[in-house]
């Protein structure tokens, strides 16, 4: 019955493409697309770099984090932001109770994730990963979707994984397979910290093996691929291309990349964000915090100066992120 329900959702959401029928899952539950505003698709609120061994979420205090972070979230709302997608996975600082508290205090929709982070030589992977099958890992992630994370009742809105640069190793492939199994059971989008194209296309090949459409996959940090034609190839296959390292110093470079995507007819597959924040519990007062403002204060005026219409800007920062993160199983034979 559950599979039938998800398939019906898939047919409704991803063949009709009616924007007002798409819903995302925030820390406060299902959110209708009309209530999401401009969306930053890859940001961080808190990151703990200590690693999975001995990971201890009591290392940070919610009151201290709120004091540091809340003004930045309120500022994002004042600039026109409506939704922040927090890309911090388990064992790297994911704290869903904190995210809900900050969402409630700021009025910002915040979306969290399930999954595991395999990059940085697997520093953030718990020991159980190595003896687990893809199905074993997927069962954990599916349980978070069905029953909530820990004992909070808060559900993930997407699957976050990451892989090391270059060809996929056995462990990275296992994470991708687990994400595929989870997608087919939940309809959650797979967002993978990837970087250069070699791993991205290997990930897409695994999706194909599972019969999953490329539109279920977000190539995170695609801006790190020097051969821009690879981004076109992936976008033309249906995958989402995320340029999510925007900052005050590289706006002109991002304009160039956005223009390239537009000129080649794949603006509709583009996502933009900062990869900014974040509170670091190892640093006094949480360390330096980079705001989420560059999109609103510098990129948008630059896009308008380049002749981008309001509808094109809305497409980049609202309509396409909604489509990318909407819940629904996406199979190859449905597209």
Task: Give the topology, please.
Elements: H1 2-14, E1 23-26, E2 29-32, E3 38-43, H2 62-78, E4 81-86, H3 96-106, E5 109-111, E6 113-114, H4 119-122, H5 128-131, H6 134-147, E7 158-162, H7 170-186, E8 190-193, H8 197-209, E9 217-220, H9 228-237, E10 240-243, H10 251-263, E11 270-272, H11 294-305, H12 310-325
Parallel strand pairs: 3-4, 4-5, 6-7, 7-8, 8-9, 9-10, 10-11
Antiparallel strand pairs: 1-2
Mean pLDDT: 93
Radius of gyration, CA atoms, in whole angstroms: 18 Å
What is the correct CATH architecture of the domain at 2-31 and 114-271 and 289-334?
A: Alpha-Beta Barrel
Gap between N and C termini = 23 Å
For this structure, the CATH topology of the domain at 2-31 and 114-271 and 289-334 is TIM Barrel
CATH class designation of the domain at 2-31 and 114-271 and 289-334: Alpha Beta
Strand order of the largest sheet: 6-7-8-9-10-11
Report the CATH superfamily of the domain at 2-31 and 114-271 and 289-334: Metal-dependent hydrolases
Per DSSP, the total helix count is 12
Biggest β-sheet: count, sense, barrel?
Answer: 6 strands, parallel
Tell me the series of helices and strands, N- to C-terminal: HEEEHEHEEHHHEHEHEHEHEHH
The total strand number stands at 11
Query: What best-fitting shape do the alpha-carbon axes yield?
Result: globular
Helix vs. strand class: alpha/beta
The percent range for helix content is 40-55%
Portion in strands:
5-15%
Query: Uncertain segments of ≥5 residues (pLDDT<50)?
Result: 1-17
């Amino acid at each position: 019955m559950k599979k039938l329900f998800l398939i019906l959702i898939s047919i409704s959401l991803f063949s009709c493409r009616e924007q007002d029928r798409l819903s995302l899952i925030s820390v406060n539950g299902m959110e209708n697309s009309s209530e999401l505003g401009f969306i930053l698709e890859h940001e961080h609120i808190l990151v703990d770099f200590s690693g999975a061994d001995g990971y201890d979420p009591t290392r940070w205090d919610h009151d201290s984090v709120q004091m540091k972070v809340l003004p930045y979230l309120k500022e994002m709302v004042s600039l026109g932001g409506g939704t922040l997608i927090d890309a911090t996975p388990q064992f790297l600082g994911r704290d869903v109770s904190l995210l809900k508290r900050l969402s409630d205090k700021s009025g910002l929709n915040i979306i969290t994730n399930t999954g595991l982070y395999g990059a940085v030589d697997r520093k953030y992977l718990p020991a159980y990963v190595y003896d687990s099958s893809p199905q074993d890992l997927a069962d954990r992630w599916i349980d978070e979707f069905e029953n909530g994370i820990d004992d909070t009742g808060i559900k993930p809105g997407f699957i976050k994984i990451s892989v090391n640069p270059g060809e996929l190793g056995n462990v990275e492939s296992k994470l991708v397979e687990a994400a595929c199994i989870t997608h087919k059971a939940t309809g959650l989008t797979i967002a993978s910290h990837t970087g250069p194209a070699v791993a991205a296309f290997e990930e897409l090949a695994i999706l194909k093996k599972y019969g999953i459409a490329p539109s279920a996959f977000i190539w995170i940090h695609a801006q790190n691929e020097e051969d821009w034609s690879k981004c076109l190839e992936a976008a033309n296959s249906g995958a989402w291309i995320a340029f999510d390292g925007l900052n005050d110093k590289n706006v002109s470079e991002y304009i160039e990349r956005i223009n390239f995507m537009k000129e080649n007819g794949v603006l509709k597959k583009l996502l933009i964000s900062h990869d900014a924040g974040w509170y670091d519990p190892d640093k006094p007062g949480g360390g330096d915090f980079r705001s989420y403002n560059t999109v609103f204060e510098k990129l948008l005026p630059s896009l308008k100066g380049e002749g981008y219409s309001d509808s094109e800007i809305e497409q980049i920062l609202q309509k396409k992120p909604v489509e990318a993160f909407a819940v629904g199983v996406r199979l190859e034979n449905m597209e």
